[in-house]
Amino acid sequence: MNLKFVVNDYVLIWNLLFQASISENIHKLKQKLWLNYKEEYNCTYKDKNLILKDPKNYIPNDDTIYNIVMETKEYEKIKKSTDKYRNEILKIWDDNKKQINKELKDILRFDIDSYNIFVVNDSLNVVDSTLIKDNKQSTLIFGKRIDTEDRNKIIVDLIFEIVKREMKDYNPKYKEIVQSVLELAILNELSTRLNDRSAYLTGEATLDYLKRQIYPYWLMYLGSAKEEMLDYMMRDKIAFEIDKYTFERQLKNVDLKEFIDFCIRNQKHIIKIKEIEII
Question: What average pLDDT does this structure show over 13-40?
Fold first, then answer.
């Protein structure tokens, strides 16, 4: 996987205008624009897909709103902050990309295309993975705060959004199973490998029970031998009775999509087991 991090004025301004206001000054600017340029403001809302089709060469039909925003001191400050944020994410990615690509190859067992990450201000707290028709490049809009206690988390979260985007239309009827496996793969296993400590009790709380049901088979998928499973249980603080499970040796030879298919086919058997518990 190759990630290119870009700050684009039009993408940034569009999100400042149409996402929740990140400051009182931005809120006042938006109100002023709305009162004085209502028609132009409404037209700007329609620009998003056009921008993302070809961000590098995008030229608006009416640049009134964009020019006004660009000329403000507030935008100058936000752009500077966003550039700094982009550089921080880029450094975290550069420091970890060799290991991440190695681990992803082992965990996913399928390739992911290169992505252009359009970085917006982290105060926006936004992830936008909208699929744009005719877009020749895979793109994602991303602006989330960096966790000072776990700086790698920002990259794990970004990769999680990318993998979700790649799997968006995969077995939508069983989206909870798909989401659970994706969390096990990225939020839990990839994060555990990057930080050398278990991240298996993190993720969407509503999926916790389902993930714990899948967990024994997930260990089989990762290639864990039966005699190694106790160590994983202690590491991840998830307990189950090993002897109650048929050891599915073939799982270590399939990719993530095939593992999801296995879970869907066998869901009645997987989910009915009640003995799993948090240690």
Answer: 96
DSSP string across the chain: --EEEE--HHHHHHHHHHS--SSHHHHHHHHHHHHH-HHHHHHHHTTHHHHHHSGGG---S--HHHHHHHTSHHHHHHHHHHHHHHHHHHHHHHHHHHHHHHHHHHHT-S----EEEEE--GGG-EEE-PPPTT-SSEEEEEE----TT-TTHHHHHHHHHHHHHHTTTSSGGGHHHHHHHHIIIIIIIIHHHHHTS--TT-S-GGGHHHHHHHHHHHHHHTT--GGGHHHHHHHHTEE--GGGS---GGGGGS-HHHHHHHHHHTHHHHHT----EE-
- The neighbouring-strand residues paired with 127 are 142
| Segment 193-251, tens digit of pLDDT | 999 999 998 999 999 999 999 999 999 999 999 999 999 999 999 999 999 898 999 99
- The position carrying tokens 């970004």 is 158
CA-angle at 239, arms to 236 and 243, nearest 5°: 130
Q: Is 142 left (phi over 0), alpha (psi -120 to 50) or beta?
A: beta
CB 9 within 8 A of CB 50: no
Q: pTM for the whole thing? A: 0.91
Please state, in angstroms and rounded to a whole number, the distance separating the CA atoms of residues 197 and 215.
Answer: 17
Rg for the chain, CA atoms, rounded: 22
| Position 273 confidence tier, pLDDT thresholds 50, 70, 90 | low
pLDDT in tens, 114-137: 999 999 999 999 999 887 766 667
The phi-psi region of residue 80 (left if phi > 0; otherwise alpha if psi is between -120 and 50; otherwise beta) is: alpha
